[in-house]
Amino acid sequence: NPMINSTWNGDTITIHGNIDIGLAVAIPDGLITPVVHNCDRKGIVEIDRELKELIKKARDNKLKPEEFQGATFTVSNLGSYGIEEFTAVINPPGSAILAIGAIQKEPLFVEDDEEEEILIVSMMKMTLSCDHRVIDGVTGASFLRDLKDFMEDPIKAMF
Question: Is 142 helix (H, G, I), strand (E, B) or coil?
């Protein structure tokens, strides 16, 4: 989904070659978005380690400007506050932000040719805010569909 990793430049669109992901972090004075640069060249363990370091630096007010500027995509998670669903505001220069809500237990009705049943499943709502000068609804929906597929079957992300 390369359009999700793009920027509006006033009259042109730049599709970035690197993926720099920002994560919204609450601090006493408000919010800051530390950035993990070049996520496309790092493994999940390295990204997690780097993100933990950046979050600690953010909370200690020790981030350098290059550590909180230039995200090409941002993630905001209010699920830990019990918020089920919300709409996040885009952080320029990125053109999209993913809002992640709390995981909730919900009933799910399942029906096949022979049987009907109600299962209790864990559900999480995600909302994607997009700059429509760059990312239209179909592109945003395709990204969310692919993300959902990867989250439900993580092995897909490896192929």
Answer: helix
SS3 152: helix
Please give the Cα distance from 87 to 74 (Å, whole number).
13
Separation CA 132–CA 95 (nearest Å): 8
Give which of 1, 13, 2 is closest to 93, Cα–Cα.
13
Residue type, 133: R
Q: Tell whether the model's pLDDT for residue 157 goes beyond 90.
A: no
State yes or no: cis peptide before 93, omega within 30 of 0: yes
* Catalytic, out of 52, 132, 133, 145: 132
Beta bridge partners of 97: 74, 129
Q: How many helices (DSSP H) and strands (DSSP E) are in the chain?
A: 2, 9
Q: State pTM to two decimals.
A: 0.88
DSSP string of 49-108, one letter each residue: HHHHHHHHHHHTT---GGGTS--SEEEEE-GGGT-----PPP-TT-SEEEEEEEEEEEEE
The question of whether 132 is a catalytic residue gets the answer yes
